[in-house]
Every structure is written in C-alpha cells, then in structure tokens.
Amino acid sequence: MASGMKFQFIGTGGAFDGHLVNSSAVVQLHGRNLLIDCGHSVYPALLKGGWVDRLDAVLVTHLHDDHVGSLSTLLYHRALVTQKPLTIYTQTPDFQQLLRSFLSFAMGQPERFVHFRPLTDLVGAGAIDTFGRHVPQMPTFGFVFQQDGQAIGYSGDLADPDFFFQQLDAQGLRHIRVYHDLSFFPGNGAHAYWGDLARHAGQYDIVGYHHNHLLNPPENPIVLASNLRTER
Ligand SMILES: [Zn+2]
C-alpha cells in the first residue's frame, strides 16, 4: 500500500438529507484509520462498507445528532461484538467531559467500552476550535491532519466562511486540500454558503460537503465531495 495520508468520505449529506448518509469520513494517518463523526445513518454505512472492524479511533467535531447519532452503537459493536474497544481522541478536557456525559445516556459508564485520550497523543492531528461559529454557544471543532509534508483541513460544521482559512493561514498552511461544509442557501446561519467559500478557492483546494448535492447550482465552482472519484 502506498504511504501517505488517505482520506475517504463515508457520507456527505446534511442533517436533513434523509436519502444520503450523514457527513463522515475516514482519514488514514500514519497507517491508522480515524473515523470523523458517526451520525445517525453512519453506523449502517460503516457496516455495509466493511469499515467497523478496520477503524482504529474516532474523532468528533460536535454533538449534533447527524454527527454522533450512531456513535454509541459503533462503540458497543467494537467493545462487545469485535471485542476490540475503540479509542476516542478528544480536543480538550471540557469536550471530553461533554462527550462522556452525552454517551452516558446511552452507555451508562462509557469508559467501560471506549478509551478516551487527548488529541495531542495523536501524531499529525490538530484541532481548530470553532466554538459558537456553527450554532451559538455550541462547542464545535475542525481538524488539521499532517503527514510527510502533506496537509488536510476538515472544517466540521461552520457557518463562518472565512474563519477556518484564517486559522490555517495563522498556522502557515496554504495551498492545501480543505474539506469544508458547504450550503446552497445564503444566510442559512449554520453552514458556509458556497458563494462565500468560493472567494478562497484561488488559494485553497476546497472540496464541499454536508449538503444535498442535487441542489448544486451550475455556477458553483467548488468541487463537491459527492463528485470525488479518487480518495486522497
Ligand atoms: Zn451541526
């Protein structure tokens, strides 16, 4: 197998696109398969794709149902069926606490079924704190992955179309592939509108996700994740 980072979407749909799998992806970083998000339609898709036993760890952008709705089922599967509990890498101690209490409603004591570790333990992965920029007062995060001089950005759900790029800029990351949530509705308030994202398309290799791609207007210059043929 070729070395280097690999990235593959499990689903690219938005919260209300019931005919699509929720936005979720697997990043292969230093040979380990990291699942980003596990919304309500993701566990069945992971099963179908043969992914469940091939995952090494999970990252979570935020606690909306289309990003964590089947997370406890996946964690139970790995702990009880596969008997190889997953690790969840968490961005901050506060977010780990929030995730633990969220999971406790479905799992009692989640630490019996999953290992929690800080994201700083994961070589090549970093978080971008996007608190309140998707939904007011809600903890949300994007991610940056780096390996062998290659870098990938993943916005998570983010309404501010400029913020993620400012953060990447501040880290000296330019001309990289950025997976960014992309909405076809201007002023929707929760996701970046394609027309605003397009301003960054000259500097970054942007791929949009988290929407119903059938609504894509022909004048949108940004590549959609659903149209990607090759993984990267
Ligand atoms: Zn969300």
Q: What is the terminal-to-terminal distance?
A: 13 Å
Helix segment tally: 6
Biggest sheet overview: 6 strands, mixed
Question: What strand order characterises the main sheet?
Answer: 1-2-3-4-5-6
Gross morphology: globular
List the helices and strands and how they pair.
Elements: E1 6-11, E2 24-29, E3 32-36, H1 42-48, E4 57-59, H2 65-68, H3 71-81, E5 86-90, H4 93-107, E6 114-118, E7 125-129, E8 141-147, E9 150-154, H5 163-170, E10 177-181, H6 194-197, E11 205-209, E12 223-224
Parallel strand pairs: 3-4, 4-5, 5-6, 9-10, 10-11, 11-12
Antiparallel strand pairs: 1-2, 2-3, 7-8, 8-9
The structure holds zinc ion.
Zinc ion binds at residues 62, 64, 134, 157.
Structure overview:
The chain has 232 residues and is α/β, with parallel strands linked by helices. It is 21% helix and 25% strand. It has six helices and twelve strands. The chain has a six-stranded mixed beta sheet with strand order 1-2-3-4-5-6. It has a six-stranded mixed beta sheet with strand order 7-8-9-10-11-12, covered by helices on one side. Strand 2 and strand 3 (32-36) form a beta hairpin.
Features:
binds zinc ion, single chain, 232 residues, 6-stranded mixed beta sheet, 12 strands, alpha/beta, 6 helices, globular
Short description:
The chain is an alpha/beta fold. It contains six helices and twelve strands.
